[in-house]
Sequence to fold (225 residues):
Amino acid sequence: RKEVEQDPGPFNVPEGATVAFNCTYSNSASQSFFWYRQDCRKEPKLLMSVYSSGNEDGRFTAQLNRASQYISLLIRDSKLSDSATYLCVVSDGGATNKLIFGTGTLLAVQP
Amino acid sequence: DAGITQSPRHKVTETGTPVTLRCHQTENHRYMYWYRQDPGHGLRLIHYSYGVKDTDKGEVSDGYSVSRSKTEDFLLTLESATSSQTSVYFCAISEFQGRLGEQFFGPGTRLTVL
Fold:
C-alpha cells in the first residue's frame, strides 16, 4: 500500500463547478498535512495546510479525518486558472517530520 | 515567492560523468531538501540538511551526495551519472519542522543523462 494515495484523475469539470479531491494516508503517526498545487512543468506551490478542525481559504476548503486517515480538498466555483495537479502531502511521523508526497490529482477546468 | 534559485535549470550530460546541481536560498531557512520527480511517483526525497554541514539521507540517496558549507547553498552531486537519474530535481527549504514545516520549492532542474 502506498503511504499517500490519491486518485490520479483527470477530473474534467466545467467552470463554476464544485470539485472534491480525496487522499488517504497509511501512517497513523503523521502530524502534518498539506495540499500543494503544481502547474505543468513548474514547481509545487503550497496551497494550504490542513488542520484537524478543517480550514477554509476563499474557494478552497480542506478537511482532515484522523480516524479514517483521510484528507480532502474542496474547490468551489472552479476557475480556468485552477487547472493544475493537486498534491496531497503528509509528514512521515518520524522525529524529523519528513514529508511524503502523493502522485497528485490532475484537474482540468473547461470553459 | 520564497527566494530559492536552482542552477542549472536544464542540463544534458553523458553516462558516467559527474554532475553538480546547486540550490541557493535568500530566506536564511535552516532546512533544505533535494527531491526528484518522475512520472508515476510522487516527489521522492534524496537528501536533506538540517544545518550547515549537517545532512542526512532520504528515500532514494544511492548514487547521490550532498554538501552544505553555507546556510544559503545546498549542492547535490551525481558522482557518476546514469540514465536512471534522468529526472526533474527540486530543491526545497523550510524554516521549521513539525506542524509548521511547510516546504517551499525552487523552480527545478531538468536533467537528462544520455
User: Anything to note?
Assistant: The radius of gyration of chain B is 13 Å. The interface with chain A takes residues 35, 40-45, 48, 50, 56, 58, 90, 97-99, 101-108 of chain B (CB under 8 Å). Chain B has a mean pLDDT of 94.
